[in-house]
């Protein structure tokens, strides 16, 4: 599948395949990850089918999101187009640029999500209301 949403693309990590001894996946600042890494967080215990995360956009923050185990559905919306991306491999991450409304759902119970972020946590960088997101886009574009 091809990502057509603005400011969003697949990211591939460096991979070292050790045959019987597993696969090493490598993410370095400003290399495979297109920004300087300031924060890493991961999401576990996605046990409930009804679980739903995200529902926000960031004004400045850039992130790369990986499904390192299991699977889930990522929906990205750039204000004019929306796309569903099903993630079920650790091999490919998704770069989420700023000004992208995103939601995550349909997690398998063994799903583990890893996120690499360009900045420290800042609640002021969030837009948590879709109407405000659309207004914000008009202001900045
Ligand atoms: P949020 O980013 O909305 O989670 P998700 O996009 O996965 O649904 O964050 C959920 C809560 O956790 C919110 O109150 C902010 C807080 N939080 C931090 O304090 N630090 C962090 O690094 C993150 C990602 C969230």
If you had to describe this structure to a student in words, what would you say it looks like?
The chain has 141 residues and is mostly beta strands. It has a single domain (8-140), classed as Jelly Rolls (Sandwich). It is built from one helix and twelve strands; from the N terminus they run E-E-E-E-E-E-E-E-E-E-E-E-H. The protein has one helix spanning 130-140; strands at residues 8-12, 14-17, 23-26, 39-43, 53-58, 63-69, 72-77, 82-87, 92-96, 101-105, 112-117, 126-127. The strands form three sheets. Strands 1-9-6-11-4 form a five-stranded antiparallel β-sheet, with no helix packed on it. The protein has a five-stranded antiparallel β-sheet with strand order 8-7-10-5-12. The longest helix is centred in the last third of the chain and has 11 residues, at 130-140. It starts with 7 loop residues before the first strand and ends with a helix. The mean pLDDT is 97. Bound molecules: thymidine-5'-diphosphate. The site of thymidine-5'-diphosphate has 7 residues, from strand 4 and strand 5.
Task: Kindly summarize this structure in a few lines.
The protein has 141 residues and is mainly β.
Which small compounds were modeled alongside the protein? thymidine-5'-diphosphate
Class per helix and strand makeup: mainly beta
**Number of folding domains?**
1
Spell out the CATH superfamily. Jelly Rolls
Strand content: 35-45%
Strand element count: 12
Straight-line N-to-C gap: 28 Å
Order of helices and strands: EEEEEEEEEEEEH
Q: Bin the helical content.
A: under 10%
Question: How many helices does DSSP assign?
Answer: 1
Report the uncertain regions: none
Overall average residue pLDDT = 97
Give the spatial strand order of the biggest sheet: 1-9-6-11-4
Shape: globular
- Report the major sheet: 5 strands, antiparallel
The quaternary structure here is single chain
């Amino acid at each position: 599948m091809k990502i057509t949403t603005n400011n969003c693309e697949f990211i591939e990590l460096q991979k070292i395949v050790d045959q019987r001894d597993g696969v090493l996946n490598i993410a370095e600042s400003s290399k495979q990850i297109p920004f300087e890494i300031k924060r890493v967080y991961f999401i576990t215990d996605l046990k409930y089918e009804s679980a739903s995360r995200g529902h926000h956009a960031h004004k400045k923050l850039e992130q790369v999101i990986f499904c390192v185990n299991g699977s889930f559905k990522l929906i990205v919306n750039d204000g004019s187009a929306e796309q569903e991306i099903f993630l079920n491999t650790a091999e490919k991450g998704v770069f989420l640029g700023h000004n992208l409304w995103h939601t995550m759902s349909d997690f398998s119970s063994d799903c583990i999500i890893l996120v690499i972020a360009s900045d420290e946590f800042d609640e002021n960088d969030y837009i948590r209301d879709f109407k405000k997101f659309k207004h914000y886009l008009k202001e900045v574009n």
